Amino acid sequence: MRSAIVFVLLLAVILGALYFLFFQPQQKALEGAELDASLSAQEAAKLRARVNDLESMLGDVRKTSAELEAAVEEKERALAAMVATQDELLGELEQEISDGQIQIQRLQGMVRVDMVDEILFDSGEATVKPEGQEILSRVGEVLKKAEDRQVVVQGHTDTVRIVGRLAARFPTNWELSAARAVNVARFLQDEVGMDPSRLGATAFSEYRPRADNETKEGRQMNRRIEIVLAPIPKEPENLDKGGELDRSDKQN
Prior knowledge:
The chain is 57% helix and 13% strand. By secondary structure, the protein is an alpha+beta fold. It folds into 2 domains: 1-61; 81-231, CATH 3.30.1330.60. Strand 1 (102-107) and strand 2 (110-116) form a beta hairpin. It starts with a helix and ends with a helix.
Protein backbone atom coordinates (compact mmCIF):
# COMPACT_ATOMS: atom_id res chain seq x y z
CA MET A 1 0.00 0.00 0.00
CA ARG A 2 2.81 2.30 0.90
CA SER A 3 4.57 1.53 -2.35
CA ALA A 4 1.38 2.35 -4.24
CA ILE A 5 1.19 5.78 -2.58
CA VAL A 6 4.83 6.39 -3.39
CA PHE A 7 4.16 5.38 -6.97
CA VAL A 8 1.18 7.74 -7.21
CA LEU A 9 3.21 10.59 -5.76
CA LEU A 10 6.06 9.84 -8.09
CA LEU A 11 3.67 9.73 -11.02
CA ALA A 12 2.18 13.06 -9.96
CA VAL A 13 5.64 14.59 -9.77
CA ILE A 14 6.46 13.24 -13.22
CA LEU A 15 3.19 14.54 -14.66
CA GLY A 16 3.76 17.92 -13.02
CA ALA A 17 7.24 18.05 -14.46
CA LEU A 18 5.92 17.11 -17.88
CA TYR A 19 3.25 19.87 -17.61
CA PHE A 20 5.78 22.53 -16.76
CA LEU A 21 8.35 21.27 -19.21
CA PHE A 22 6.14 20.61 -22.24
CA PHE A 23 2.43 21.43 -21.93
CA GLN A 24 2.61 24.88 -20.32
CA PRO A 25 5.10 26.28 -22.87
CA GLN A 26 2.95 24.88 -25.68
CA GLN A 27 -0.15 26.40 -24.16
CA LYS A 28 1.52 29.79 -23.82
CA ALA A 29 2.77 29.51 -27.35
CA LEU A 30 -0.76 28.70 -28.48
CA GLU A 31 -2.17 31.65 -26.58
CA GLY A 32 0.50 33.88 -28.06
CA ALA A 33 -0.28 32.62 -31.56
CA GLU A 34 -3.99 33.24 -31.00
CA LEU A 35 -3.21 36.77 -29.77
CA ASP A 36 -1.02 37.41 -32.79
CA ALA A 37 -3.75 36.07 -35.04
CA SER A 38 -6.29 38.38 -33.40
CA LEU A 39 -3.98 41.36 -33.82
CA SER A 40 -3.29 40.36 -37.41
CA ALA A 41 -7.04 40.14 -38.08
CA GLN A 42 -7.51 43.62 -36.62
CA GLU A 43 -4.66 44.98 -38.69
CA ALA A 44 -6.09 43.28 -41.75
CA ALA A 45 -9.49 44.86 -41.06
CA LYS A 46 -7.87 48.28 -40.71
CA LEU A 47 -5.97 47.77 -43.94
CA ARG A 48 -9.15 46.71 -45.73
CA ALA A 49 -10.95 49.81 -44.45
CA ARG A 50 -8.04 51.98 -45.57
CA VAL A 51 -8.03 50.37 -49.01
CA ASN A 52 -11.79 50.97 -49.29
CA ASP A 53 -11.28 54.62 -48.35
CA LEU A 54 -8.51 55.00 -50.92
CA GLU A 55 -10.63 53.32 -53.60
CA SER A 56 -13.48 55.70 -52.79
CA MET A 57 -11.12 58.68 -52.98
CA LEU A 58 -9.76 57.40 -56.28
CA GLY A 59 -13.29 57.10 -57.62
CA ASP A 60 -14.03 60.69 -56.58
CA VAL A 61 -10.80 61.90 -58.22
CA ARG A 62 -11.65 60.07 -61.44
CA LYS A 63 -15.16 61.53 -61.43
CA THR A 64 -13.87 65.05 -60.80
CA SER A 65 -11.26 64.61 -63.50
CA ALA A 66 -13.89 63.47 -65.98
CA GLU A 67 -16.12 66.42 -65.07
CA LEU A 68 -13.24 68.88 -65.46
CA GLU A 69 -12.29 67.34 -68.79
CA ALA A 70 -15.89 67.63 -69.99
CA ALA A 71 -16.05 71.26 -68.79
CA VAL A 72 -12.81 72.09 -70.63
CA GLU A 73 -14.12 70.45 -73.80
CA GLU A 74 -17.37 72.40 -73.51
CA LYS A 75 -15.49 75.68 -73.06
CA GLU A 76 -13.27 74.88 -76.04
CA ARG A 77 -16.35 74.06 -78.14
CA ALA A 78 -18.07 77.28 -77.06
CA LEU A 79 -14.94 79.32 -77.80
CA ALA A 80 -14.61 77.76 -81.24
CA ALA A 81 -18.28 78.57 -81.94
CA MET A 82 -17.79 82.17 -80.81
CA VAL A 83 -14.71 82.57 -83.00
CA ALA A 84 -16.59 81.12 -85.99
CA THR A 85 -19.52 83.50 -85.41
CA GLN A 86 -17.21 86.49 -85.07
CA ASP A 87 -15.34 85.56 -88.26
CA GLU A 88 -18.61 85.18 -90.19
CA LEU A 89 -19.85 88.56 -88.95
CA LEU A 90 -16.55 90.18 -89.92
CA GLY A 91 -16.98 88.79 -93.42
CA GLU A 92 -20.63 89.84 -93.73
CA LEU A 93 -20.08 93.38 -92.42
CA GLU A 94 -16.67 94.13 -93.87
CA GLN A 95 -17.75 97.37 -95.58
CA GLU A 96 -19.66 98.73 -92.57
CA ILE A 97 -16.74 97.90 -90.28
CA SER A 98 -14.36 99.64 -92.67
CA ASP A 99 -16.62 102.72 -92.65
CA GLY A 100 -16.55 102.82 -88.84
CA GLN A 101 -20.29 102.20 -88.53
CA ILE A 102 -20.02 98.79 -86.89
CA GLN A 103 -17.58 97.26 -84.42
CA ILE A 104 -17.42 93.56 -83.53
CA GLN A 105 -15.73 92.35 -80.37
CA ARG A 106 -15.39 89.02 -78.60
CA LEU A 107 -14.92 89.13 -74.85
CA GLN A 108 -15.63 86.85 -71.86
CA GLY A 109 -17.46 84.23 -73.89
CA MET A 110 -19.61 86.77 -75.73
CA VAL A 111 -19.69 88.37 -79.17
CA ARG A 112 -20.85 91.99 -79.27
CA VAL A 113 -21.93 93.89 -82.38
CA ASP A 114 -21.93 97.68 -81.89
CA MET A 115 -23.89 99.73 -84.44
CA VAL A 116 -24.05 103.51 -84.55
CA ASP A 117 -27.66 104.64 -84.54
CA GLU A 118 -27.55 106.43 -87.91
CA ILE A 119 -27.25 103.19 -89.90
CA LEU A 120 -30.44 101.84 -88.27
CA PHE A 121 -32.61 104.88 -87.49
CA ASP A 122 -33.36 108.36 -88.70
CA SER A 123 -32.56 111.09 -86.19
CA GLY A 124 -34.89 110.94 -83.19
CA GLU A 125 -36.77 107.94 -84.56
CA ALA A 126 -37.13 104.39 -83.27
CA THR A 127 -38.39 102.69 -86.43
CA VAL A 128 -35.69 100.72 -88.24
CA LYS A 129 -35.18 102.27 -91.68
CA PRO A 130 -34.80 100.13 -94.83
CA GLU A 131 -30.99 100.39 -94.92
CA GLY A 132 -30.89 99.28 -91.29
CA GLN A 133 -33.22 96.38 -91.99
CA GLU A 134 -30.85 95.08 -94.65
CA ILE A 135 -27.91 95.18 -92.21
CA LEU A 136 -29.93 93.62 -89.39
CA SER A 137 -30.99 90.81 -91.72
CA ARG A 138 -27.37 89.93 -92.40
CA VAL A 139 -26.45 90.11 -88.73
CA GLY A 140 -29.52 88.13 -87.69
CA GLU A 141 -28.89 85.30 -90.15
CA VAL A 142 -25.45 84.76 -88.62
CA LEU A 143 -26.60 85.00 -85.00
CA LYS A 144 -29.58 82.73 -85.64
CA LYS A 145 -27.20 79.82 -86.21
CA ALA A 146 -25.94 79.98 -82.60
CA GLU A 147 -29.00 78.20 -81.23
CA ASP A 148 -27.48 77.59 -77.79
CA ARG A 149 -26.91 81.31 -77.16
CA GLN A 150 -29.18 84.22 -76.32
CA VAL A 151 -29.26 87.49 -78.24
CA VAL A 152 -29.73 90.64 -76.16
CA VAL A 153 -30.34 93.98 -77.87
CA GLN A 154 -29.18 97.00 -75.86
CA GLY A 155 -30.23 100.57 -76.59
CA HIS A 156 -27.92 103.51 -75.76
CA THR A 157 -28.14 107.26 -76.34
CA ASP A 158 -26.06 110.39 -75.83
CA THR A 159 -26.91 113.06 -73.22
CA VAL A 160 -28.79 115.39 -75.57
CA ARG A 161 -32.28 116.03 -74.23
CA ILE A 162 -35.34 115.29 -76.36
CA VAL A 163 -37.38 118.42 -77.08
CA GLY A 164 -40.21 119.55 -79.32
CA ARG A 165 -42.76 117.19 -80.80
CA LEU A 166 -40.53 114.13 -80.24
CA ALA A 167 -40.80 114.66 -76.48
CA ALA A 168 -44.45 113.63 -76.62
CA ARG A 169 -43.39 110.18 -77.88
CA PHE A 170 -40.09 109.91 -76.03
CA PRO A 171 -40.12 112.06 -72.88
CA THR A 172 -36.53 111.05 -72.05
CA ASN A 173 -33.67 109.06 -73.51
CA TRP A 174 -34.93 106.08 -71.51
CA GLU A 175 -37.98 105.79 -73.73
CA LEU A 176 -36.00 106.35 -76.93
CA SER A 177 -33.32 103.74 -76.13
CA ALA A 178 -35.97 101.24 -75.00
CA ALA A 179 -38.11 101.70 -78.14
CA ARG A 180 -35.10 101.27 -80.41
CA ALA A 181 -33.92 98.11 -78.63
CA VAL A 182 -37.40 96.57 -78.70
CA ASN A 183 -37.89 97.36 -82.40
CA VAL A 184 -34.57 95.73 -83.30
CA ALA A 185 -35.48 92.65 -81.25
CA ARG A 186 -38.90 92.46 -82.94
CA PHE A 187 -37.31 92.73 -86.36
CA LEU A 188 -34.98 89.82 -85.54
CA GLN A 189 -38.02 87.79 -84.48
CA ASP A 190 -40.52 88.79 -87.18
CA GLU A 191 -38.30 89.23 -90.21
CA VAL A 192 -35.24 87.07 -89.54
CA GLY A 193 -37.19 84.30 -87.81
CA MET A 194 -35.10 84.17 -84.67
CA ASP A 195 -36.52 82.15 -81.75
CA PRO A 196 -38.11 84.77 -79.43
CA SER A 197 -37.18 82.73 -76.36
CA ARG A 198 -33.55 83.54 -77.17
CA LEU A 199 -34.19 87.27 -77.56
CA GLY A 200 -34.08 90.09 -75.05
CA ALA A 201 -34.14 93.89 -75.16
CA THR A 202 -32.75 96.30 -72.59
CA ALA A 203 -32.39 100.08 -72.38
CA PHE A 204 -29.53 102.01 -70.80
CA SER A 205 -30.44 105.52 -71.93
CA GLU A 206 -27.39 107.82 -71.69
CA TYR A 207 -25.83 106.15 -68.65
CA ARG A 208 -23.31 103.79 -70.22
CA PRO A 209 -21.34 106.04 -72.55
CA ARG A 210 -18.38 104.80 -74.57
CA ALA A 211 -16.95 108.24 -75.21
CA ASP A 212 -17.07 111.85 -74.05
CA ASN A 213 -20.49 113.41 -74.68
CA GLU A 214 -18.87 116.85 -74.89
CA THR A 215 -17.71 116.17 -78.44
CA LYS A 216 -19.69 115.47 -81.61
CA GLU A 217 -17.66 112.33 -82.28
CA GLY A 218 -18.18 111.10 -78.72
CA ARG A 219 -21.94 111.61 -78.88
CA GLN A 220 -22.04 109.74 -82.18
CA MET A 221 -20.29 106.75 -80.59
CA ASN A 222 -22.65 106.79 -77.63
CA ARG A 223 -25.81 106.74 -79.76
CA ARG A 224 -25.69 103.05 -80.57
CA ILE A 225 -27.36 99.67 -80.57
CA GLU A 226 -25.41 96.76 -79.13
CA ILE A 227 -26.37 93.22 -80.05
CA VAL A 228 -24.80 90.76 -77.62
CA LEU A 229 -24.53 87.03 -78.27
CA ALA A 230 -24.05 85.36 -74.89
CA PRO A 231 -24.64 82.07 -73.05
CA ILE A 232 -28.22 81.44 -71.97
CA PRO A 233 -28.38 81.75 -68.15
CA LYS A 234 -29.58 78.71 -66.23
CA GLU A 235 -33.00 78.85 -64.59
CA PRO A 236 -33.03 78.69 -60.76
CA GLU A 237 -33.71 75.16 -59.55
CA ASN A 238 -36.66 76.24 -57.37
CA LEU A 239 -38.67 77.42 -60.39
CA ASP A 240 -41.14 75.12 -62.08
CA LYS A 241 -41.62 74.96 -65.85
CA GLY A 242 -44.10 77.82 -65.75
CA GLY A 243 -41.59 80.10 -64.08
CA GLU A 244 -43.41 80.01 -60.73
CA LEU A 245 -41.78 79.41 -57.38
CA ASP A 246 -42.44 76.11 -55.67
CA ARG A 247 -45.36 76.21 -53.21
CA SER A 248 -43.00 75.61 -50.31
CA ASP A 249 -41.04 78.74 -51.34
CA LYS A 250 -44.20 80.81 -51.69
CA GLN A 251 -45.28 79.99 -48.17
CA ASN A 252 -41.93 80.90 -46.59
